[in-house]
């Protein structure tokens, strides 16, 4: 732009944040993150992806169409202002981009790694109607990781204390989000975690190669910097009850975010054999207790040369990829529907296949076989074909007569779903429950008990990290409204 005709007192021209016109932007290919070679990563627990480089992030940000009506924000469960944070990336103001995300998302480094953006914000991206959508999740991770690379230390937030106290039960994504939002309002917040380390499912359910534990620790430290107290080794329902928190312990409200850590089983013959795990037990041993570093860490986990994981979701994918890293020469993913019906993220399925995981699709277990000593020797299965859609909207698998066969394995891991642990429900009189022992809640995450709110998997059953975070935000707003009226 020429400045020769401009007067010295003229207002400076507004320079568009995206210098490229839309017809040019749409021709830019979607940028790919840097990933470690599959032959290398399949044998260790280091993170698979290094994320986008700065150059790739800047190029990817140029692809944003700067929509007048940013539907991507509407597609985000916590309503991150995606257009604005991408503007800040284009300006190379990564701190401002991260601050924009943190206005509604307290766990950006985590969400940038594990959230299913492809079925949320990226699914509704305007660019994605004709071309590949903007890599919103990868950009979110980039700015969060940039802060860590810069060594930015969280500073305590100055707020005016309200004098009211809230107890958060569970330090998973719902609990941490609720705690952060309430702390911003000036409430005294204490998070009670039953286990010895913070994070809930973020720590015990997601493997190191997808979500490093240091990331969980760093995000938790930022929430502590808001003034939140986190107390571990406190099992609410045993150490203290919900009624005691609201009574003798002096809390004005309680949020239940205890997740869904009780596994479901197939109820087929042979489940009591040695060598059969639930995915919950298997991943907890490996992730929370460090079994992948045995004997450096004292918790062992024994698997055979051949491992079958039953299920088609992200937990199943995490379990089978973990088994591969623990030394399984043959790792099978056994799923009763087709690839198109698998609820796991497409990216995780792709990574698994790259790492040598064998998908046994349209296959349903009927029995686990064992030897005279009670150890697993095989998984008897039956082939399936897809019929009409069932209640989930997916085509119902139907057995193919005469298709029985055995997959020789020494380990079977069941990853077919989970339900909440019943301790709190059993020790909180009058608390209304939903299906499979979930805590029943209204639209604002309130239970039928005054002052008691709930969200995440304890209210939903098994769901995603970002939906748990949305519940935590909704509950925090409802608790704020409830306490303001007290």
Strand order within the widest beta sheet: 5-4-3-6-18
Strand content: 15-25%
Structural class: alpha/beta
Given this structure, which CATH class of the largest domain is correct? Alpha Beta
Overall helicity: 25-40%
Molecular structure report:
- This protein has helices at residues 22-25, 38-41, 54-62, 71-75, 82-90, 94-102, 108-114, 136-150, 173-184, 201-204, 213-224, 242-246, 279-288, 314-325, 346-354, 423-427, 457-460, 465-484, and strands spanning 34-35, 49-51, 165-169, 188-192, 229-231, 253-256, 262-263, 276-278, 306-310, 330-334, 358-360, 363-370, 376-389, 395-399, 405-408, 411-414, 418-419, 452-454.
- Strand 3 (165-169), helix 9 (173-184) and strand 4 form a beta-alpha-beta unit.
- The chain has three domains: 22-35 and 43-150, Orthogonal Bundle (Fumarate Reductase Iron-sulfur Protein, Chain B, domain 2), CATH 1.10.1060.10; 165-260 and 419-484, FAD/NAD(P)-binding domain; 265-416, FAD/NAD(P)-binding domain, CATH 3.50.50.60.
- It has 486 residues and is α/β, with parallel strands linked by helices.
- The termini are far apart.
- The strands form five sheets. Strands 5-4-3-6-18 form a five-stranded parallel sheet.
- The model is unreliable at 1-15 (pLDDT under 50).
